[in-house]
Design a protein that fits this description.
Layout lengths: L7 E3 L4 E2 H19 L4 E5 L9 E3 L12 E6 L2 E6 L4 H9 L2 E6 L25 H18 L25 H16 L6 E6 L2 E6 L4 H6 L1 H10 L4 E6 L18
Parallel strand pairs: 9-10
Antiparallel strand pairs: 1-2, 3-4, 3-7, 5-6, 8-9
Helix pairs in contact: 1-2
């Protein structure tokens, strides 16, 4: 049960708490296995993303009886972290106006035994995307080719690497396709919020609502260009971060 689903959490885009919850519910089958039983620190924004938020680790009161928690010792006491174990508990976290759930790299009850290692590549504002790409690809080569350790991309910001869907290997060719697609869209007059997402044989075009008409006007040219890049399907997704996933404005491209 989501309380106050009409509350606007992202004023610039008009995204409500209900829409955010719908998004998390849609991705729960993919997200929950990765964060299951990991202690969660909730970064909460009750007044929306434009206002100051706060971090909450301890859940000692005001929680439902079915919510699983884990007790972690700290200096002078203990912290009761909430655990996400299923869609229901994930939505409980979201209902606390949690816009960023921070999870541990270990799972309860074995909190002293991490099962993942995170390399945080955090470029400065003046560094170009190719610097980040080169670092990410070099790190992957080290981990997989030299050490035999599986790795995957988990972007937490709108960097270029996040254009490649989770589960797909980030390769220079896929990044080239993304860059070419975004350059083409800018060339036909699409500006502002713009992202091409690589989903294997499918390209998903995420554009702001004010540029939808322009893309629709040029749809035949768009489909032809992306087909030439090797995509079998092209989907148009206005502001793809909204309303829990792909909206109903989607179109399949013919194989050319």
């Amino acid at each position: 049960m989501i309380t106050h689903p009409e509350k606007v959490l992202f004023p610039a885009d008009g995204i409500t708490k209900g829409e955010l919850a719908a998004y998390y519910e849609a991705v729960a089958p993919f997200l929950v296995p990765y964060i299951k039983a990991r202690p969660v620190t909730m970064e909460r924004f009750p007044a929306g993303i434009d206002r100051k938020g706060f971090l909450q680790k301890d859940v000692s009161k005001g929680f439902p009886a079915w919510l699983q928690r884990v007790e972690v010792p700290k200096k002078g006491g203990t912290v009761h972290y909430p655990l996400v174990t299923d869609t229901r508990s994930l939505l409980w976290v979201v209902n606390q106006n949690t816009l960023t759930p921070h999870v541990w790299i270990s799972r309860a009850p074995k909190l002293n035994y991490p099962d993942v290692c995170v390399f945080d590549l955090d470029p400065t504002e003046d560094e170009k995307p190719e610097v980040l790409r080169a670092a990410a690809l070099a790190l992957r080569r080290l981990l997989e080719d030299e050490l035999g350790l599986p790795s995957w991309d988990a972007p937490s910001a709108p960097c270029l690497s996040s254009r490649v869907a989770y589960g797909l290997r980030i390769t220079p060719e896929r990044l080239r396709q993304v860059e070419a697609g975004e350059a083409f869209l800018r060339g036909i007059g699409v500006s502002g919020d713009l992202r091409v997402r690589h989903h294997g044989e499918k390209a998903r075009l995420e554009v702001s609502s004010e540029h939808l008409a322009r893309v629709r006007e040029q749809w035949t040219a768009v489909v032809t260009f992306f087909s030439g890049l090797g995509f079998a399907t092209v989907e148009l997704d206005p502001a793809g971060y909204r309303r829990g996933g792909l909206l109903a404005i989607a179109s399949a491209a013919p194989a050319l």
